[in-house]
Specification:
CATH superfamily: Alpha/Beta hydrolase fold, catalytic domain
Low-confidence stretches: none
Number of domains: 1
Helix content: 25-40%
Order of helices and strands: HEEHEHEHHHEHEHH
Mean pLDDT: 93
CATH architecture: 3-Layer(aba) Sandwich
Structural class: alpha/beta
Number of helices: 9
Largest sheet: 6 strands, parallel
Shape: globular
Strand order of the largest sheet: 2-1-3-4-5-6
Distance between the termini: 26 Å
Strand content: 5-15%
CATH class: Alpha Beta
């Protein structure tokens, strides 16, 4: 169980919660980015952000560079926490991880979340039109990270901090940029997709294409903001998720 606890964090344990909400961060992010969500969630939801190797309290561990390997390991680690209804939320890289984890749990254990929330991520069957950046020399790689506007300038301009976060960032981009989609049956859980109206990386069409991945309800909601609208529009995003989860039957 100690190995499992490395992966699944629970900043505010809630044994009376009806549902666990597992959250998967964007590239380079950690479980910590979801801490502010605690102030917005109702008592029926227990927040459980995932902590991947190479960040947060696990920053000394070697990060994964292959998404399939990560998902296989995650499937085993998260299983003890699936003893009550659960939902997944993933942003950008986290959306792809949560989608592939949902597929694995469905195929291997016949378990699915009551809702899959994906955010700021083109549908998995679509090819990334951009050239890979994970293997660029450091100055060019940092320039690309800066352009994506997801890492604070205070971090980008701090050489010591960058030395700590760069290995995980590179690994995350390698994981995304070497990902190979494989055909499989559509999921039997609802999918809700969120996007930023000013996101230059992911278009509305990229997001709408998620619809083929589910046999159940599908929704797409756009918010003001760029790729990291989940920060600026947090309360609106969470309100939308809470409404959808409130309407679920937890059986």
């Amino acid at each position: 169980m100690s190995e499992t606890k490395l992966w699944v964090t629970c900043p505010k344990p809630n044994p009376n919660a009806k549902l666990r909400l597992f959250c998967f961060s964007y590239a380079g992010g950690s479980a910590w980015v979801f801490r502010p969500w605690l102030n917005h969630l109702p008592s029926f939801i227990e927040l459980c952000p995932l902590e991947l190797p190479g960040r947060g309290k696990r920053w000394t561990e070697k990060p994964f560079t292959n998404l399939d390997s990560l998902v296989q390991t995650l499937g085993t680690a998260i299983l003890p926490y699936l003893n009550r209804p659960f939902a997944f939320f993933g942003h950008s890289m986290g959306a792809m991880i949560s989608f592939e984890l949902t597929r694995l749990l469905s195929q291997k254990y016949e378990i699915e979340p009551v809702h899959l929330f994906v955010s700021g991520c083109r549908a998995p069957q679509l090819r990334d039109p951009n050239p890979p950046i994970y293997n660029l020399p450091e100055p060019e790689f940092i320039a690309e990270i800066r352009r994506l506007n997801g890492t604070p300038d205070a971090v980008l301009e701090n050489a010591e901090l960058m030395e700590l976060v760069l290995p995980a960032l590179r690994a995350d981009f390698e994981m995304l940029e070497t990902y190979k989609y494989t055909e499989a049956s559509s999921l039997n859980c609802p999918i809700a997709v969120f996007g930023g109206l000013q996101d230059t990386e992911v278009t509305t069409e990229d997001l709408q294409a998620w619809q083929v991945q589910t046999n159940r309800a599908f929704s797409l909601q756009m918010f003001e903001g760029d790729h990291f609208f989940i920060e600026s529009m947090r309360s609106f995003l969470l309100t939308s998720m809470i409404i959808k989860l409130s309407n679920q039957s937890f059986g």
